[in-house]
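The instructor's notes for this session suggest beginning with a concrete chain rather than abstract definitions. Hand out the sequence below and ask the class to guess, before any prediction is shown, which regions might be ordered.
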Amino acid sequence: MKALILSIRSEFYKSRKTAGFWSVVILPLFLCLVLFINFLSNNNAVGTPSMLLWIQFAGTIFGAMGTLLLPMLVVFTAYSVNNIEHKSDTWKTLFSLPISKFSIYAAKYIYAMFIILICLMLFVPFTVGFGNLLGLLKPQLNFGDYSMINILLKMYFKLFLSSLGILSIQFILSLLFRDFLKPMGIGFVATMAGVILASDHLVYAYLFPYAQQMLAASEMPQPHGQHLAGGSLPAITIELFTKEIYASLITASVIFFAGYFIVLKKSVK
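After discussion, reveal the predicted structure:
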């Protein structure tokens, strides 16, 4: 465990000045800022009920992230974590350290997971913050009458779980190929195939890793029931562990351990 923690810390120090590291902050900030400006300059949402206003605001960001942007983020993150060793040609040096090869491999994978998780979780405070700021700048937008924090946390955590299958695949590809074009090309083509499968609502689309994040993103929360007599808002429910999430976790686990054997072969080259 100590070796694993040291390896994770090493990954942080090696990548803290790279584009892959700072993209976890820039991406959610940029998307939320763009939609904030759009809502600020658009009066079409005036008079919309608070809950529906939040769903419209948060759903636009969530939908964009869950379709094409998340797979590309995973591709970029997986490659950037391993590219540090490819670029400096330090794989042999890394494997010669008195640390188990599994700790080195697991640390890189866990760090990539951490980067993606942080990026997705940052959408929650940015979405809530920009939404409340809209309510202050445009009081006619009733953002302050409803809180969506808990819902957003579940939504983005589910999106994170749905991305783990893709991460495992792209992580192995980034180990096999030194250049960015091959894993990027494979990831892009697979993502397009996933979009088609998910859009067509095929029965077994949830088994394809690159369709799982889109299936999770398509389940945007919808209000259930009617407004109560006192004017209270209906409840919104989110089922966290659905079939595509289970498929993603199984895929991630199987490919993670398969990737370890690739690392073993790579270490003796």
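Then share the key points. Residues 223-232 have pLDDT under 50 and may be disordered. The two ends are 27 Å apart (CA to CA).
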